[in-house]
Specification:
Helix content is 29%, strand content 22%. It is built from 14 helices and 27 strands. The protein is globular and about 70 Å long.
């Protein structure tokens, strides 16, 4: 049974993490018991007015922030986590307590005490700490915090009159607090909306800025005359995408639904289809979308791919559904799917596939107690572009600030990635970071990534309500629609077809480009693997700078024409 790589969205306050985690797990277990392929919790989009700047915060007002602390034993901590989660390790499931973790991996007791004394010397007070020694919660006056961290604290009010603080400037930690590595919590906007993307999730305006789609759109490249195919194992409700388009003033051709293997027999994954359609409309509003729908139990993935190739309407496929972890899958079914995908590559079609939302433990999608490192299928096929997940951070105007690998230990969620145990690593999968002491000679996943964290997710209409959604099933249509625009741009510059783009992506990554095509994500992870320079198993080559990638691909293909 195919499963959507969509992520559950819960919107409780951060102080209720334990309750939220319990809710998420309960929902996931209930969905699994019912045989559902995707689950998403929705909240109505609040009606708000733009926040009003009231002015500088009063100098004597007390505020709080969190000082993230250095973990000198971080590498050893990661090694321990790997051992705990490795069934072949003697330390498998030999958990350590929080009181053991702090002294073992954090700063020493003496340095912790010295850090707290230094904070008091600056006029600050520690109001909470944790035995893990990962952070300190600190309070002080606005005047003290501004002077210490070189920021300006501003006061705003939302449409309901609720006041909150936003810092102007980036906090700078003084040298005598070097055991602190970062500051969070100065921004106190209401917790029911994400702080890292504008209210309501990424929209057609903010996504253009975040991933540098804007220059292509400004030049008239909006997908007009191009077609993108979407694979789905659910029927759809056209009313939700229509409401989304009406809300954002987006116009585009009607979605064409194509039945495969008898068509979709139920609508359990209609939310997933909404997400696919709306993200594509976000990026390429004028593109034709062909939704190839299959029954969730009897439909064959390879049948959809073969049908798309046979229809010959598009060179781009977006697939947010996965069959599950590659371990133990039926070999014949795998072979049938890969044969269809191989044919797609041979005919110049690129299939973008979600890498899954269970981090490095894809088998946990079906069994939470399965701690084997595993990747998702068909993302593990070398005939697709596997798309992983990040957490996106943008500026107030929506422009790109940075990304980290997406991982949420509480909800067993994260961007899928790791190393296949069956498919050989293709010869073209080389470049900075690809070969390491982790490489096993097999296919490495993902190839690329983009925003997937539900807390920094995408605006979506589903079940008649506005909400936010995430998962690698959001990152995948972003990449697919972006490549559609790039294909349109390339055609206008004399490059009629891009063909299977995965080898080209690695080629660009291996060489110096005039315009950096990827945002190299070097922080965060995916519940096991850590992000780092170049390719990594948490975020692949990184997320796209779409305009730069378009120019680089055109330059490369014009310099290396077909002979």
């Amino acid at each position: 049974m195919m499963e959507a790589s969509a992520s559950i969205r819960f919107v409780m306050g951060r102080s209720n993490n334990r309750v939220a985690a319990a809710v998420v797990i309960a929902i996931a277990l209930a969905a699994a018991a019912a045989g559902l392929s995707a689950a998403r919790a929705w909240r109505p989009k609040p009606t708000t007015m733009a926040p009003r700047l009231l002015g500088p915060a009063p100098a004597g007002e007390r505020i709080r922030f969190t000082l993230l602390m250095r973990l000198p034993g971080a590498a050893h901590a990661r090694a321990l986590v790997r051992a705990i989660e490795d069934p072949s390790s003697p330390q498998f499931r030999h958990f350590v307590s929080p009181t053991e973790y702090g002294p073992r991996f954090g700063i020493s007791t003496a340095r912790l005490a010295a850090l707290e004394r230094t904070l008091r010397g600056h006029g600050l007070r520690v109001i909470a700490s944790f035995p893990q020694r990962t952070e300190l919660i600190v309070t002080g006056t606005v005047r003290t915090v501004e002077r210490l961290l070189h920021v300006k604290i501003l006061t705003y009010a939302d449409g309901a009159g609720n006041r909150f603080h936003v810092p102007r400037g980036t906090p700078v930690i003084p040298p005598d607090l070097s055991d602190g590595v970062a500051v969070t919590g100065l921004d106190t906007r209401p917790r029911w909306r994400p702080n890292d993307v504008p209210i309501g999730g990424l929209t057609p305006t903010t996504s253009d800025a975040a991933y540098d789609v804007g220059p292509l759109r400004a030049a008239g490249f909006d997908g007009n005359g191009k077609t993108i195919a979407v694979i789905s194992f659910s029927s759809s409700d056209p009313g939700d995408p229509a409401a989304w388009m009406n809300h954002y003033g987006v116009n585009g051709p009607a979605v064409r639904f194509v039945s495969v293997d008898g068509g979709a027999s139920r609508s359990d994954g209609a939310d997933e289809n909404n997400l696919d359609i709306e993200v594509i409309r976000d990026i390429a509003p004028a593109a034709r979308i062909m939704m190839y729908e299959l029954p969730p139990t009897t439909g064959a993935y390879g049948d959809a791919v073969n049908r798309i190739v046979a229809d010959h309407q598009t060179d781009i496929i977006s697939s947010s559904w996965g069959e599950g972890c590659e371990v133990g899958l039926d070999r014949a079914e795998r072979a049938a799917t890969d044969s269809a995908l191989s044919a797609a590559v041979a005919t110049g079609v690129t299939t973008f596939v979600a890498s899954g939302d269970s981090g490095a433990y894809d088998c946990q999608r079906n069994n939470l107690s399965d701690h084997r490192l595993s990747v998702d299928w068909p993302a593990a096929s070398s005939n697709v572009v596997a798309v992983g997940g990040t957490r996106l951070d943008v500026a107030g105007n929506g422009s790109y600030l940075g990304e980290t690998g997406w991982e949420d230990q509480l909800s067993d969620a994260g961007g899928g990635g790791g190393f296949s145990v069956t498919d050989p690593r293709p010869k073209w999968q080389t470049g900075p970071g690809v070969l390491s002491n982790l490489s096993n000679g097999r296919r490495q996943v993902p190839d690329v990534s983009a925003d997937a964290d539900p807390s920094t997710g995408w605006s979506e209409y589903s079940q008649g309500q506005a909400g936010e959604a995430g998962g690698t099933s959001a990152a995948t249509p972003l990449w697919a629609a972006s490549m559609l625009l790039i294909e349109q741009y390339a055609s206008s510059h004399g490059v009629p077809r891009l063909g299977f783009v995965d080898p080209l992506l690695y080629t660009l990554a291996r060489s110096t480009q005039q315009f950096p095509p990827f945002h190299d994500v070097t922080l965060g992870g995916n519940r096991h693997y850590q992000a780092g320079p170049g390719w990594d198993p948490a975020t692949g080559l990184g997320s796209p700078d779409v305009f730069n990638l378009a120019r680089d691909l055109v330059a490369y293909l014009r310099a290396h024409p077909v002979r």
